[in-house]
Amino acid sequence: MIVLVGFMGAGKTTLGAALAQRLGLPFVDTDDVIAARHGPIADIFASAGEATFRDLEEDAIRETLTGPQAVVSLGGGAVETPAVRDLLAGHEVIWLRISLQDALARLGDDPSRPVLNSANLAARFAARQPLYAQVATKIADAMSADLLDALDVT
After folding, report:
1. Can you tell me the distance from the alpha carbon of 104 to that of 52, in angstroms, rounded to the nearest whole number?
2. Into how many domains does the chain fold?
3. Which residue segment(s) compose the domain that 120 sits in?
4. Is 73 helix (H, G, I), strand (E, B) or coil?
5. What pLDDT is stored for residue 143 in this prediction?
6. Apex 128 CA angle, 105 and 18, nearest 5
7. Minimal CA–CA distance to 21: which of 71, 65, 67?
8. Which residues of the chain have pLDDT under 70?
């Protein structure tokens, strides 16, 4: 498995799909898996809360990582769950590192991202950085023009 982690707006879905195509592997975005099963993520946050969403996310990640080889994109907050960090052990995990300012510039005002408008966004961003570093086997600059070529994955 090749797993992409990083803050929202880092380009995990876009890069993951391109990388999967290059490697001839399927691409799985765990946010898409959750949405297909349970409805839009923003609706899950609104109706059931973030804790319920994180439980659904952990289940989707566990299932995906025990499935066939793929390039997998995780939601930006997935690494906050200790069990998810444990699940990532033994996989190639690429952290797409991005500044908060660059992420916000890419995202704009996207209503489908419930964490984007939280009052503590900067604190969440800062708290996640060491968690991304903890699980990463590679770190890549999300703003690199030649990011796909720079990854050097097989």
Report:
1. 25
2. 1
3. 2-150
4. strand
5. 82
6. 60
7. 71
8. 108-117, 119, 145, 147-150, 152-154
Neighbours of 63 (CB within 10 A): 12
- Euclidean distance between CA atoms 149 and 147, whole angstroms: 5
CATH of the domain at 130: 3.40.50.300
- Comparing CA positions, the residue from 74, 91, 90 lying closest to residue 128 is 74
Q: What is the pTM of this model?
A: 0.90
| 7-17 b/e (C-beta count within 10 Å ≥ 16 → b) | bbbbbbeebbe
Q: Which residue has the tokens 């707006």?
A: 9
Dist CA 76 CA 154 (whole Å): 24
- Look up residue 85 and give its amino acid: R
- Sign of the CA dihedral running 107, 6, 125, 97: negative
Backbone angles phi and psi of 90, in degrees to 5: 90, -5
CB 67 within 8 A of CB 61: no
Tokens 């946010």 map to which residue? 31
